[in-house]
Write a structure and sequence with these properties.
Layout: E1 2-3, E2 7-8, E3 14-15, E4 36-45, E5 51-59, E6 65-72, H1 93-96, E7 102-107, H2 123-137, E8 142-148, H3 153-163, E9 169-172, H4 181-185, E10 186-187, E11 190-191, H5 193-207, H6 211-214, H7 218-226, H8 229-233, H9 240-250, H10 260-270, H11 276-279, E12 294-299, H12 307-316, E13 323-328, H13 341-353, E14 365-369, E15 374-378, E16 385-392, E17 398-399, E18 406-410, E19 420-424, E20 432-436, E21 439-446, E22 452-460, E23 466-475, E24 507-512, E25 516-520, E26 525-531, E27 555-559, E28 563-569
Parallel strand pairs: 2-3, 6-7, 6-8, 8-9, 12-13, 13-14
Antiparallel strand pairs: 1-4, 4-5, 5-7, 10-11, 14-15, 16-17, 16-28, 18-27, 19-26, 20-25, 21-24, 21-27, 21-28, 22-23, 22-26
Helix pairs in contact: 2-3, 5-9, 5-10
């Protein structure tokens, strides 16, 4: 089947949503010249005889071309639907194929028609990805140069594959990546219940269907409606909260129990601490094997899911000289994912086609600074900063000087006590640029043997409007810190055991907040909110990711010796 309809940013092309570059201009980019031929449901054999299914979109021309692979458990048939759904993340074929790339979208083992049983980010998945890459490289339409593309799970599989060092894999572009299954499921010991539970159930629902639902009938009509330019443009700022709710809605439909319920039970019940089961699903140690070019990226607002993994990947890839990283502002990676394609084209044209695009001419790290609304660069991450220490005072103030005392709250909001506490600074006398890894050094007592510490950092404008900046979490019984491996702002929490909290005794905690960047402007105030239950109506977690409550109802008391440490750029 052949067709020609290119997307892009030029007149006459289907216009892509979202930012397409990090504010830079590139040269010698591949033009849109080719038509498209497409083969659906192509079986790809892997080493144990299982067959994965893939849709192959490639130039309708003679010759051989580099290939970009996108692999995930999400329906490959829906990747061209054009809907604002958090499963449409493989990139847009009508951008890549006209510019001389094959775009191969594959389903992982046990999902949406691929053979075998899905096993969730484990060694089997990594072996399958190696075989998929080498199969693609050996096809008569491929020139042997293979890259990988896509965000979220499609980004995770890129790093998974690269740890296996397939000979024909030459470059990656993983945006919104997670490198530890534990981190996708738990926030420092607190189960991310409103995400991981509906995610597994939604995967079960989606995997039970195929072409009849995804390519025919109503889906054909829906594609035509969603392709209308005015309709498509409305998704340029797709609300991540609404998209998350869509996932929860899908999860309510009937699904086959195997293997989805068993995997969810393993995550939520059988493996509540980091053990061998989680170690198999952790890429941190394996990432040191990767020596091919990697362009990491994410957006500052994706705090409760992918942003932590971005910085862990950067650190784990430190010995690789061909790594770049960018952090984008809010609404920069809307669904369906088709943003940053010009940036990716400059990357792949350089590494897969040998074209001088200028992609490597800036420093390795480039990030958007919210509040200042400007791009910044750095040679490393985090950039040089000094941590500003602010005391959590008993009067609710957040100051450089300590005012001795304590404040208490009830974890269930009972006994006429508040269910959360907040501390707010005075209006700032000048701009303050926070860039890097914040930390709360908390001293607290609890009446229960376990509790959750849930933090929310906000920028409060002069009119009282608050903007969420980042969050931090810790299950109190999993407070142990590997001090030898830690540094200010980045405590290393092994999460291997649970140790009960001694009742009514002061305990010191080191709680990391997810790294972020923000200019707190003159006249604004800094606010920190602390609670133990983010399912309550009076607390709104970022992206609505809330947690299963832990411990029994009780009273937590915060001492003024507690310090919020904010990384402030040197010279500010």
């Amino acid at each position: 089947m052949a067709r020609f309809k290119a997307s892009g940013v030029e007149p006459g092309q289907r216009q892509l949503n979202g930012p397409q570059t990090t504010g830079r201009q590139y040269r010698n980019l591949s033009p849109a010249l080719h038509g498209t031929t497409r083969e659906d449901n192509v079986p790809v054999p892997v080493r144990d005889g299982t067959r994965l299914l893939a849709d192959i979109h490639r130039p309708d021309a003679d010759g051989r071309f580099p290939a970009l692979i996108a692999a995930a458990p999400y329906p490959r048939q829906l990747q061209d639907l054009g809907a604002p759904a958090a499963i449409i993340e493989a990139g847009t074929s009508d951008f890549w194929v006209p510019r001389g790339y094959a775009h191969v979208i594959a389903n992982l083992r046990g999902t949406v028609g691929s053979g075998g049983t899905y096993t969730f980010f484990d060694e089997q998945e990594r072996k399958d990805l190696f075989d998929l890459i080498e199969w693609v490289a050996g096809q008569p339409w491929c020139d042997g140069n293979v890259g990988m593309i896509g965000i979220s799970y499609y980004a995770m599989t890129q790093l998974e594959a690269a740890t296996q060092r397939p000979p024909h894999l030459k470059a990656l572009f993983p945006f919104n990546v997670t490198v530890q299954a534990w981190e996708a499921s738990y926030h420092n010991g607190l189960l991310s219940e409103t995400f991981i539970t509906p995610w597994f159930r939604a995967m079960g629902v989606l995997s039970a269907h195929g072409d009849r639902l995804y390519r025919k009938g109503l889906s054909r009509l829906l594609r035509r409606v969603l392709a209308i330019p005015a309709v498509h443009h409305r998704f340029s700022h797709a609300d991540a909260v609404q998209v998350h709710r869509g996932l929860q809605l899908v999860s309510r439909f009937r699904h086959d129990a195997h293997p989805w319920d068993a995997l969810l039970n393993a995550v939520a019940t059988e493996h509540p601490v980091r053990d061998a089961w989680w170690d198999e699903r952790d890429l941190i140690q394996l990432l040191a094997r990767i020596d091919i070019p990697v362009y990491l990226g994410g957006e500052w607002s994706n705090v409760p899911l992918h942003l932590p993994g971005l910085f862990k990947a950067w650190e784990a890839l430190a010995r690789n000289p061909h790594v770049r990283m960018t952090m984008l502002g809010e609404h920069s990676l809307p669904w369906p994912w088709e943003s940053m394609h010009i940036e990716a084209l400059a990357w792949f044209d350089h590494w897969l086609k040998g074209q001088d695009t200028g992609i490597l001419e800036d420093p390795a790290v480039r990030y958007w600074l919210p509040g200042a609304e400007q791009w910044r660069t750095a040679d490393s991450w985090p950039p040089p900063a000094t941590h500003l220490a602010l005391s959590l005072n008993p009067d609710g103030s957040l100051t450089a000087d300590e005012r001795p005392g304590a404040r208490s709250y009830a974890t269930d909001g009972a006994n006429a006590m508040p269910a959360q506490l907040s501390w707010t600074s005075d209006p700032l006398p000048g701009d303050l640029d926070m860039v890097g890894h914040p930390e709360l050094q908390l001293t607290a007592t609890s009446s229960a043997a376990d509790t959750g510490w849930i933090l929310l950092l906000q920028d409060v404008e002069p009119d009282g409007k608050s903007i969420d900046v980042t969050q931090g979490w810790l299950r109190a019984s999993m407070r142990h810190v590997d001090e030898d491996a830690s540094e200010t702002g980045r405590p290393v929490l092994p999460m291997k055991t649970r140790d009960p909290v001694p009742a009514e005794e002061p305990v010191d905690y080191r709680i990391p907040l997810v790294a972020n960047a923000r200019r707190f402007r003159r006249g604004h105030r800094i606010r920190l909110i602390l609670t133990s239950d983010d399912t309550r109506a009076d607390f709104r977690p970022m992206l609505l990711f809330s947690h299963a409550p832990v411990g029994i109802a009780g009273v937590n008391t915060v001492h003024s010796s507690s310090r919020l440490l904010l990384p402030i750029l040197e010279g500010e």
